[in-house]
Amino acid sequence: MSSHTVPLKALGAAEALAGPKEQSVGGDCLSEPACRACGSHAGDLVLDLGNQPAADWLPPRGDLGPDPVYPLQMWLCASCGLAQLVAGPSTTEEPQGIEPAAVIAQAREAVRRVSAAGLLPHGGRVAEYRSPHDGSWMDLLVPYGLSPACEGAPAEVVLDCFGLMHVADQAAAVAERAARVAPGGVLLVQYHSLEAIVSHGQWNLLRHGHYAYHSTTSLTKILAARGFCSLTGWRFDLFGGTVLLTAARVADGGRPGPSVELLLRQDERTGVRDATVLRGLQRQAEDHAARLHEWLVAEQTAGRAVVGYGAASRAVPLLVFAGADRTLLQAVADASVAKQGRRMPGTDIPIIAPSQIADHEPLSVLVLVPDLLSEVRASLPGIEASGARWVDVAVLGP
């Protein structure tokens, strides 16, 4: 049932990254990559995970597949520096997950910082663009004297929290958000930083439905093309490196604020615009998948059952690329009732409720989303009480 029985070593970095291939996939058709933000055709393919199922569709457990698969590739624009999905299915059907405690805590802290910077005008209006995966900030903003803007109306605060990456047409999405910022207003954009993805080898964040992987460098340039200057940037530890960028219209174009300059220098040190640096994700993907596969096989050989935790989209390419199936990973638990009774795409691994973990008598519970580890460990003390251990999938990485 798994799309691959072993990690895709056969791709090889040289072959996989030889250059763009003509594609026509799921309604998002590109013969040669054209940047989703600036339209440039100059760029490089930097990561190729082969054919992968759509991570946002969790089939019912009784649906034995095979699941449709699509090329999963990342391309880096040489003009504006935006890393982006080349092509893939254009629909999103992922069942709603449970918002992690770490995400909620980060949102509270972000609103506090923005307020302290004087960017939340009392009596102002808020237009919010939400991620399909995460909750709204509106309940956090209302106590500061703000109210929701009418549909399509201008607002003093326009907020995008992980929403921008879900839009295929990046140019149109940025233009829409910029146009809604009222005179004197501010645009807030939160994104998982490409700098963090590269620094931490987070290759499995590449997935269908996530069209753009922003760096402070690329987003600052894209916003500048719309007459917006990046004023302030806050970095958070969430997901290994999340940035909240604030931008506003500046008549003379302006210069990025000091905190943004710091983020831009970090981008430069990491090499977020260097295709050679980003191609390192290919090696990390192959190494991580191989190590996970070897560990699962070793546990199976020793007779030690393993159950996963966290049926998130980022777990899909990891499990598929590692050639995991239910003989190696008996199930994946998730607190979202909407996901329970389904299975992980591209595999025969069922999704179960956390209360069912004990039924499998695992000696290891593999946490597929590292940000969840502290939360689930505290909420499920019975795991360790039974003699099992929590294993962070990140420690199996390269």
Describe this structure in words.
The protein has 398 residues and is an alpha/beta fold. The chain has two domains: 18-278, 3-Layer(aba) Sandwich (Rossmann fold), CATH 3.40.50.150; 289-396, Rossmann fold, CATH 3.40.50. Helix content is 27%, strand content 23%. It is built from twelve helices and 17 strands. The chain has helices at 13-16, 101-116, 138-141, 170-179, 194-199, 216-224, 258-270, 275-278, 280-301, 315-321, 373-379, 382-385; strands at residues 23-25, 28-30, 43-53, 69-77, 83-85, 125-130, 147-148, 155-161, 181-192, 212-213, 228-236, 242-249, 306-309, 332-333, 351-352, 364-367, 389-392. The strands form four sheets. It has a six-stranded mixed sheet with strand order 7-6-8-9-12-11, with helices on both faces. A five-stranded parallel sheet has the order 15-14-13-16-17. α10 links the parallel β13 (306-309) and β14 (332-333). The chain starts with 12 loop residues before the first helix and ends in a 6-residue tail after the last strand. Residues 2-30 have low confidence and may be disordered.
Give short descriptive properties of this protein.
12 helices, Rossmann fold, alpha/beta, five-stranded parallel beta sheet, 398 residues, six-stranded mixed beta sheet, 27% helix
